[in-house]
Amino acid sequence: MAFPGAQVLIIHKNKTLIHKAYGYHTYDHITPVDTTHLYDLASVTKVMGGGLALMKLQEKGKFNPNMLLKETHPSFKNTDKADFTWQSILAHQAKLKPYIVFWQTAKRKNGRYKWRTFSYTQNKYNNIQIDDEIFLHRRYARKIEKLIKKSPLNSEAKYLYSGLGFLLIPDFVERTSGMPLDQFLKKEVYEPLDLDRITFQPSKYFPLEEIVPTEIDTFFRHKLVHGYVHDENASMLNGVSTNAGLFSNARSLGTIGEALLAKDDKIFDHQIVAQYTSVQFPENDNRRGLVFDKPMLTYKAGSSYVAESASPSSFGHSGFTGTFIWMDPEYDLIVIFLSNRVYPYRSNRKLYSMNFRPDLQQLAYDYLLKNKN
């Protein structure tokens, strides 16, 4: 099996073509998936969290992609990353390493955690909640920033997917807006769209029965991850990050997708949307927009998680846990697929080998092309 259950939502010209839930939370067939239930979005958070936050700050004149990292984060001034533009960071063109496993850096050689890292009791110092039994020291976020500063760079500036820059965005949003990332997004995007089923830290606001479990973690937490973010690095930022952390149902994402495709500037400045959803470095064979992913510059069957019929103007993102959202302004089409393909273990890659997401999306295009008259 590729996944125990899923939600599918396809919207065309603001009309819902299909909105269904399938299967169960897990393979034990106890809790059926409902369309209201929340999935861990993983890297879809980059666009539905980080991208939207930066776009709103840009509307307010407080950010633009040409800003240098040392301008938004002065502590990077004397590092080899100081002069990276946010355009290069957001388009994965900045020579940054893909990932740092921060929880492993908190371990001693004997396997035990260092002082001022993890604790199995919550107190005023260890108050970042990883799950019900693991708590991180409140100052460890500074260590994460230091490790990013010291991380080696790749030898040349070319497309390489990296989540490191997205770990720095929440701090910038809070310093610039005066609100934590989650509150800023709620005020600027989610509440204006009347969304109440998209959130960080879902176990604070929803019963576990409405949150789909993610994975039996055999690496870090050694238990079922349920109600807390799956991504370890996002968990170390208290579950509020822009590399991962958001939970949502398909309908909430669809509403945001409709707002992104709209031309009325009611929620998003459509010129800024166009900027973020345009290819930034085509000369470097980099298909990426600003935060948003794009179709391959030259389509290769079997190598893309996007349908062959997706137009060059289309945009979206996928997530490690088995999630996907794609918006196509040429067709006025939104395709959303949410699953927990990592359950019970992340080694399950059948979602990829079966080409499930591009095939699902292609069915939507085939339907529209067949019924275009």
Automatic annotation (TrEMBL):
GO molecular function, one term: hydrolase activity
Transmembrane region(s): none
Domain of life: Bacteria
Keyword Hydrolase: yes
Keyword ATP-binding listed: no
Alphabetical keyword list: Hydrolase
Pfam families: Beta-lactamase
Domain (Beta-lactamase-related): residue spans on this chain: 2-349
Name this protein carries in UniProt: Beta-lactamase-related domain-containing protein
UniProt source species: Portibacter lacus
